[in-house]
Amino acid sequence: MESQNINQEDEKIIENVELSIWEALIPVIALIAMLAYNVYVYGDSALGGTNQFILILGGAVAAIVGFRNKVSYKTMVEEVAQNLKSTTGAILILLMVGALAGTWLVSGIIPTMIYYGLDILNPTIFLAASVIICAVISVATGSSWTTSATVGIALIGIAGALDISAGMTAGAVLSGAYFGDKLSPLSDTTNLAPAMAGTDLFTHIKYMTYTTVPTIIITLIVFIIIGFTIDSSGVADVTAYQETIDATFNTTPWLFVVPLIVIAMIVKKVSPLIALLIGTLLAGVFALIFQQNLVLMVSGMQTWDFNAAYKGIMNAVTVKTTIPPVTDNAEIASKLAGLFEGKGMESMLGTIWLIICAMVFGGVMDAIGALSRISRSLLELFSSTFGLFASTVASCLAINFTASDQYLALVVPGKMYEKAFKEKGLAPENLSRTLEDSGTVTSVLIPWNTCGAYHSATLGVPVLDYLAYAIFSYLSPFMTLLFAGFNIKIKQLTQKKPTLDTIGED
């Protein structure tokens, strides 16, 4: 055993010394090239599993580099295991997010938010109101895609009646939608970013507010100004949408009790898992009180009894559920169909699958010393904190352009820069915030990115038409760089890691 330990130590010394920056970059370059081609072939369906397998192939390329530098297979597998262990909390939270989203639909919480949100529309402040409505809905649902496919479509239709530019309206819709996509604990990207950076969900959300709140305020001010400078006509008639929601669900202000309790727990820094679990259970209770007919329908049973109640709630928690809109208007029904679909824990398995495969790639890269080598090169290349932030932003944008996927724009730079931030003495929430500010929100600005293609097709507005008005999305990277440049809210680690100046010379 002693000789084996010596050999392993020798291997680590050899790989640390011999691994060049170009060797360290081979897996990254190979991964980006494979992902770019894979997305080109599969398009929007690449997240169905092929991107995940590409991450495994990237790990295989990294393993070949490791073998050439005498890193043992056992060392790589152990590092992958440690990486997977570190994501346990994030995976459990993702499952609970799916459960929460499912019960919040069946209980009528999310539809009620939309119902009352549509009341605040006014032609004069239509664009700013669109931002607010979509922000509220996306925070509640955790999904910019759902927001765009439901309220977004409705707002585009209303804008047409008011003779307001579809491009302006789409920009307002997406600005609000991505505000929630960044901040909502229900969002998969909001869970993915801290998992990649090595921090927890609510610390990440709190730290994001420093750059996100000023950005959304500026966005609102711009849309208010635009709203007062354009000519509009007609009346914002949302009655058909509200009548359909009211006919399908029992809408009542009492349903706001559940999200208020969850928000209160988040403010009180209750464990995310506990807060999400309580929010799920409370929504289940409210569903049994206010939406018995819907629970019965979701259960698939004919008679209301304890078994039907149990099965209905459990289906909402675990699998995708669909509530058909109650309306004779086929157009309204099609526009609200996406809103009336619950996620359930099952819907989160794709993101969990992505995290697991990303941890395989990141674990092998870590074991062979590639991430450490890249981090050292970055520290040599960027002597300032601003330089490191700028490099992270540029990397996220590059992945969004080349790999055409926002998840990968979080995963690849997240694992690549994690060590660099630690070596700089920067807390991981700096990295997770930068990933969201530059990776999550900019994906919608690229026509060939899955997000840009989806939202453009869903809203019926070309990316180039709404590009100038997606203010929140292109302002966010500049805001994070502004904070870095002026050293605003750049949190340091409690105890700084050794920097290049203090690392012993081997």
What does this structure look like?
- The protein has helices at residues 2-18, 21-42, 50-68, 73-86, 88-106, 109-117, 126-141, 144-162, 166-183, 188-197, 201-229, 239-248, 257-267, 272-290, 292-299, 306-318, 330-336, 349-367, 370-381, 385-402, 406-423, 428-440, 450-459, 463-466, 471-485, and strands at residues 321-322, 341-342.
- It contains 25 helices and two strands.
- It has a two-stranded antiparallel sheet.
- The protein has two domains: 2-89 and 348-485, no CATH class; 107-347, no CATH class.
- α4 (73-86) packs across α18 and α7 runs antiparallel to α8.
- It has 506 residues and is mainly α.
Instruction: Provide the β-strand percentage band.
Output: under 5%
Gross geometry: globular
Number of strands: 2
Query: How would a textbook summarize the main sheet?
Result: 2 strands, antiparallel
The low-confidence parts are 1-17, 496-506
The average pLDDT is 82
Helix content: over 70%
Q: What order do the SSEs take from the amino end to the carboxyl end, as H and E?
A: HHHHHHHHHHHHHHHHEHEHHHHHHHH
Tell me the span between the first and last alpha carbons: 26 Å
Structural class: mainly alpha
Rg, rounded, reads: 24 Å
What is the total domain count? 2
Major sheet: order of its strands? Answer: 1-2
What is the overall number of helices?
A: 25
